[in-house]
C-alpha cells in the first residue's frame, strides 16, 4: 500500500528520543521537500528526482546543502527501516562541492566576515524592519546559525538574562548570549511585530490566508537578498558571515576553548581558522603601518 512522503516524514519527526530542537531543525530543512513532493507516494521518488531537488538548492551554502542531503538521507533510511522502501534511492549520492566563486572553500583558509563599514551599513539598512533587525542583531552578537534561530520558540529565550539554548550540529546543546543592543531590537520586534498565535520566536503571516507560522529560511533569504543586492557595500555577503564576524571579533579576547564552546564546534581545528584570520588582519595592519611610515619619511 502506497504511503505519502509527508506521512513518512511525520513519523520520522515523531520518533521517540528526538530532541525538540533537533526536530524543529529537521522540520525546517524538510519543509521545501515536502512542499514539492509531500503528497506523492514515497516509492515514486526516484534518485534522479531527489538529486534534481538537491541540485536546485542553489541559494544555500555547501555546508547547509550537505545538511539537507544528510537529513533527506536519514529520512529515506527510516523509510527503508519501516518497510516502505526496499532501498534508499540516494544511497552513496555524492555531496555538492564548494563553489569558490561564491566564497565557498573546502579548506579553512578563507573565512568571510563583515568589516566595520559593512556592519554599520547593514544595521542602517535593517533598522526599519524590526523582525530582520532583531534576527541580524542575534546572528551577529550570539554566533548562532540561522537555522538555530529559526528553530527557537519564544519560550526558549531567557529575556531576563539575555541568553538561549540551541541544538547545533551533532545534536550538541550550547548556550548563546546576546548584548543589550540586541535585547532592545528583540524586545521591539516581540512587542510590535511578532504574531502571538505561533509559539515560534520568529513568525510570519501568509498574505492570502492570513495563516501564522514559523518564519522560513526561504522568506528570510528572499528579504536578505533584496536588502543586500541593492547596496554595493553589502553585495555578496551572506547571513552566515555574521557568525564568522562574531568569531573573528572574539579571537584574542577569549580563549580558543571558550570560543569553541560558544560556536559549538566539535573540532578545535575549526575554531583555529579564526585565529589565522586574526593573524592575516594583523599582517595587513602592519603592512599598512609600514606604508604610512614610508610616506611620512618621504614628506619629511
Helical amount among residues, as a percent range? 40-55%
Overall pLDDT score? 87
Strand order of the largest sheet: 1-2-3
Instruction: Kindly report the CATH topology of the largest domain.
Output: hpI Integrase, Chain A
How many domains, in number, for the residues? 2
* Proportion of beta-strand residues: 5-15%
* Helix/strand structural class: mainly alpha
What kind of oligomer do you see?
single chain
Q: Which stretches are low in confidence, meaning pLDDT under 50 for 5 or more residues running?
A: none
Kindly report the name of the CATH homologous superfamily of the largest domain.
Answer: Intergrase catalytic core
Q: Cα distance, first to last residue?
A: 88 Å
The helix/strand order is: HHHHHHHEEEHEEHHHH
CATH secondary-structure class of the largest domain: Mainly Alpha
Query: Rounded to an integer, what's the Rg over CA atoms?
Result: 22 Å
Which characteristics define this entry?
2 domains, single chain, 5 strands, hpI Integrase, Chain A, mainly alpha, three-stranded antiparallel sheet
Amino acid at each position: 500500500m502506497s504511503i505519502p512522503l509527508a506521512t513518512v516524514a511525520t513519523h520520522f519527526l515523531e520518533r521517540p528520543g528526538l530532541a525538540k530542537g533537533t526536530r524543529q531543525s529537521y522540520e525546517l530543512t524538510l519543509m521545501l521537500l515536502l512542499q514539492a513532493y509531500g503528497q506523492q507516494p514515497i516509492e515514486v521518488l526516484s534518485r534522479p528526482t531527489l538529486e534534481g531537488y538537491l541540485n536546485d538548492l542553489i541559494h544555500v551554502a555547501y555546508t547547509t546543502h550537505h545538511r539537507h542531503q544528510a537529513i533527506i538521507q536519514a529520512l529515506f533510511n527510516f523509510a527503508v527501516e519501516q518497510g516502505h522502501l526496499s532501498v534508499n534511492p540516494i544511497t552513496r549520492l555524492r555531496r555538492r562541492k564548494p563553489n569558490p566563486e561564491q566564497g565557498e572553500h573546502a579548506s579553512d583558509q578563507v573565512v568571510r566576515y563583515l568589516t566595520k563599514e559593512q556592519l554599520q551599513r547593514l544595521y542602517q539598512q535593517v533598522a526599519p524592519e524590526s523582525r530582520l533587525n532583531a534576527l541580524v542583531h542575534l546572528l551577529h552578537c550570539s554566533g548562532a546559525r540561522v537555522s538555530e534561530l529559526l528553530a527557537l520558540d519564544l519560550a526558549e529565550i531567557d529575556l531576563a538574562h539575555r541568553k538561549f539554548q540551541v541544538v547545533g550540529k551533532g545534536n550538541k546543546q550550547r548556550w548563546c548570549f546576546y548584548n543589550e543592543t540586541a535585547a532592545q531590537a528583540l524586545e521591539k520586534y516581540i512587542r510590535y511585530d511578532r504574531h502571538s498565535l505561533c509559539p515560534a520566536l520568529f513568525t510570519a503571516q501568509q498574505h492570502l490566508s492570513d495563516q501564522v507560522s514559523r518564519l522560513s529560511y526561504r522568506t528570510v533569504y528572499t528579504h536578505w537578498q533584496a536588502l543586500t543586492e541593492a547596496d554595493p557595500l553589502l553585495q555578496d555577503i551572506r547571513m552566515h558571515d555574521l557568525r564568522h564576524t562574531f568569531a573573528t571579533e572574539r579571537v584574542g579576547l577569549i580563549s580558543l576553548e571558550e570560543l569553541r564552546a560558544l560556536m559549538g564546534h566539535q573540532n578545535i581545528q575549526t575554531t583555529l581558522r579564526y585565529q589565522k584570520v586574526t593573524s592575516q588582519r594583523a599582517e595587513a595592519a602592519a603592512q599598512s603601518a609600514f606604508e604610512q611610515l614610508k610616506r611620512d619619511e618621504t614628506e619629511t
